[in-house]
Amino acid sequence: MKDFSNIENATPIFVGAEIVDIISEYTEKPWYIFKPEETGVYKIEYSKDTIDTVFVFEKPRHFFQHSRLVDKTSDLSRKRWIELFYLEKGKYYFINVALKPYLRYGSYLLKLEEHEVPASNTRETAKEVDPSKIIEGRLDYVTDVDWYSFTMKEEADYKIIYSREINDAVFIYKADKNKELVPVSDKMFLVNDTVCENYHFEEATYFMKVEHYKFRKLGKYTVRIMKEEPKQNENVKIENEFVKDLVEIQI
């Protein structure tokens, strides 16, 4: 059973805080309390040499439960562990630092930062973007989902070109519908490690969902939405060239 001794003396911790202290098996267990102002993914960074792990608990009513750990990695250059937690606005979270079992004491560093706050993990919290500009995002853990919203001011055919790492993981929805749009043609794999899909957009607002897909690597991705230039009718093209030549002859 988890030892909650000294939790009533938890020290408030805030975003951007960097705590340096000493931990010992003979002293009270260090607890910290945090209340997020926004729902999102927060990063907890701590010393790798002295700290075995950190525990994050929430107390919604009369019991403690583990908070959702979404990823854990290490920064070898600075000898620190980095953990990402999904925390909700308005709740209280208790952070406990645990000393490595083979140590009796040691100094440690504990740092709390925002990682993706506010999170755009749901359609309701979608990030509004300009479809004429390149969209840059990042998938940090296997359950990460990024939602975007954009408004088309002109009905036309568009190309959506995105990083190959998110192939089969890009979904487009019309704002008033939950069924994903189907591209108007087969996807094309381009030579610069990108994928192209063609869509027909009306004057409306759309949502785009990007999620991690199977065994593909995590990290940065880009999405670009480009308007398709209308193809000129071949007969009209020939006629225009004929008129141009005729004008030049007359001159």
Output the keywords.
251 residues, mainly beta, five-stranded antiparallel sheet, 1 helix
Write structural notes for this entry.
Residues 61-65 have low confidence and may be disordered. The N and C termini lie far apart (96 Å). This protein has one helix spanning 234-250; strands at residues 11-12, 18-24, 31-34, 40-47, 51-58, 65-66, 68-75, 80-87, 93-99, 105-116, 127-128, 135-139, 145-151, 156-163, 170-174, 188-189, 194-201, 205-211, 219-227. Strand 5 and strand 6 (65-66) form a beta hairpin. It has 251 residues and is mostly beta strands. The strands form four sheets. Strands 1-3-9-5-6 form a five-stranded mixed beta sheet, with no helix packed on it. Strands 2-10-4-8-7 form a five-stranded antiparallel beta sheet, with no helix packed on it. Strands 12-19-14-17-16 form a five-stranded antiparallel beta sheet, with no helix packed on it.
